[in-house]
Design goal:
By secondary structure, the chain is mainly alpha-helical. It contains 3 helices and no strands. Helix 1 runs antiparallel to helix 3. The termini are close together.
Length: about 70
Amino acid sequence: METLLTVCLFIFALTLIILVLIQPDRSHGMSGSMGMGSTNTVFGVSKDGGPLAKATEVVAFLFIVSALLLYLVK
């Protein structure tokens, strides 16, 4: 069981890294973080990230769950 959870954790980690790296950049550098020339909300652009963002959320959730399960099994 421990080996299976370790393999799943490794796969989720690699998938999460890949999903984060292939997402489009939403910031505009330093001027985007300072709010210059932008009418966005305080917490950034309030738009849906699409299916790629949803997949990232799901894989991140699975990563956290598998890490907690691995901790409990050990």
